């Protein structure tokens, strides 16, 4: 759903840029409370993983594909504030290096793909986890529903922005129907990816999933016919509790494989927004991307003729740059953490 230059007029794009900048500022402040010595190094990895998975367009209808937006996944894994920053980093890298998403539309993209998805998804996820049984399965199901709803919500947000500042005269009702219809289908793929990823991390290290903190119900034992709480497990050693090397290494390896190899098999069909834009005439005034001459434009390395090698190398470079930039941002945010901020956050404090 990367909005290119020319879809939205300059005044509305500028307002969206201000909104996005304000949201990022709020995210930076909130992330100081979410990030700790365990999650700070993982936040950059989450951004890189989302970058990699976004390269994997999957078919959703005849001639149409979709890809992960990532707001729900990021918010659940590392928190809503940090999750917003993850999406902002991904969109910035895509726009500057890969000519994906207009530079003048960066504010629109951060607002739609970052702010809307993280806020809607995390609010719904938190609401569901409060009423569902406190189990891994329920948490994963809540992640599925939250991710599913976040995608059409982003489609609605784009349509509203287009209704205000669209550069072509297209009936908004038709745009809304088409956008929501195709993005509900894309949302199913988003939900599946989010649920699988969240469930996998919970199975290995539930302490690293922001949205799963405090969700584990106490183990019950039957004693003399009555259920009683089992004794609490011993706390792990501090060094073991802080260690994220295996998770970080496995996540980075997965991102590199997805971007460097699996992406070659992604659907070549236009994504939901591109398809709707072409069908409804939204793209009549689309402009050439400001970074169209980038050596990595369109997710390929310039002057490498082999498509498999070119795309795979571009994906690997993108993952590397994103994890480096993201990690640098989140370490800087962590270092600026206010002294009065608690070392850990409970779900209720979000």
In short:
By secondary structure, this protein is mainly alpha-helical.
Can you tell me the number of structural domains? 1
Q: Care to count the β-strands?
A: 4
CATH architecture heading? Orthogonal Bundle
The secondary-structure element order is HHEEHHHHHEEHHHH
Mean pLDDT: 89
Instruction: Report, as a whole number of angstroms, the end-to-end distance.
Output: 28 Å
Say what the CATH topology is.
Arp2/3 complex 21 kDa subunit ARPC3
Shape: globular
Could you characterize what this model shows?
This protein has eleven helices and four strands, in the order H-H-E-E-H-H-H-H-H-E-E-H-H-H-H. With 350 residues, the protein is mainly α. It has a single domain (10-215, 244-283, 313-339), classed as Arp2/3 complex 21 kDa subunit ARPC3 (Orthogonal Bundle). The model is unreliable at 232-242 and 340-350 (pLDDT under 50). The strands form two sheets. The protein has a two-stranded antiparallel ribbon. The protein has a two-stranded antiparallel ribbon with strand order 3-4. It has helices at 10-34, 39-54, 71-78, 80-97, 106-131, 136-165, 172-204, 238-242, 245-260, 272-280, 307-335; strands at residues 58-61, 64-66, 220-223, 226-229.
